[in-house]
Amino acid sequence: MAKDPDFGRKIKAEVTSLKGQCNAGHKVGDAFDVSCYNTGGMCGFLYNAIFPTLNVMQFEGSYPWGTDEAVVNCPDSYNLLTVKLWRTR
Length: 89
What we know:
The chain is α+β, with helices and mostly antiparallel strands. It is built from one helix and four strands; from the N terminus they run E-E-H-E-E. The N and C termini lie far apart (26 Å).
């Protein structure tokens, strides 16, 4: 596993909804400390889906809607899992 250089903002992620059953075992309420160097225990498919947003958020990028939060869905639309990401202070 890559060594996390511990720079940029800290990002938290939480599973907020699940329609069906996650094949990786994630459940509503699961929380993760994630970074561009640390999956926090997320399955590869979910981590791949959040990575572009994670990259922007960790390194002080911004979106036009100007919040410190984002919502991302797992690519498995049959068992739709939704994750909320936010920057910590």
